[in-house]
Write a structure and sequence with these properties.
The chain is an alpha+beta fold. It has a single domain, classed as PEBP-like (Phosphatidylethanolamine-binding Protein). The protein is 12% helix and 29% strand. The protein contains three helices and ten strands. β7 and β8 form a beta hairpin. It is globular. The mean pLDDT is 92.
């Protein structure tokens, strides 16, 4: 996938500049069970409930961070909870997620009823070194997460790879309590 296509899509959907300062240069391959591939497309909450397989062009000797973000909470029109952290894995060797430290476990889309389409984006950052994060300290604090601020705090620079899909509420979304 040409990098310009990634950049064009991130810019066209306003992920840049709403959540990121610069678009990724490369593509993250994201495939859900049933061969549902993320490619700047629409998917259903049921299709994206299980954790996907994710890969990117990686040097197996280097460390990376993978994040999945919903910038449209509770809705794209009024994103007062921007951003919701759906997944965060740091210290990944190459693109082998099993080697990383999961800071926030994977959560599929769960847009509330009546909030329209939400964008869910994946980004990968190259790490200059290991990231020290105590336990799953972000697990309980997923609302108002800022991938921009996280990248700044950990000196990650701009994302090197990305992808996204859109999804909206359907009857498969669990009720919130």
């Amino acid at each position: 996938m040409a990098s310009s296509n990634v950049a064009q899509n991130f810019t066209a959907e306003s992920i840049v500049p709403e959540s990121l300062d610069a678009a990724p240069d490369d593509h993250v391959t994201v495939v859900y069970p049933g061969n549902k591939t993320v490619l700047f497309n629409k998917l259903t909450p049921a299709e994206v409930r299980p954790q996907p397989e994710v890969s990117w062009n990686a040097d197996p000797t280097q460390l990376y961070t993978l994040a999945m973000i919903d910038p449209d909470a509770p809705s794209r029109a009024t994103p007062t909870f921007r951003e919701i952290l759906h997944w965060l894995v740091v210290n990944v060797k190459g693109d082998d997620l099993s080697t990383g430290q999961t800071i926030a476990t994977y959560r599929g889309s769960g847009a509330p009823k009546g909030t329209g389409s939400h964008r869910y984006f994946f980004v990968v950052f190259h790490q200059p070194g290991p990231i020290a994060v105590a336990g799953n300290d972000l697990e309980a604090n997923r609302r108002n997460f800022s991938i921009r601020q996280f990248a700044l705090e950990h000196q990650l620079g701009n994302p090197i790879a990305g992808n996204f899909f859109q999804a909206e509420w359907d009857p498969s979304v669990p009720e919130r309590r």
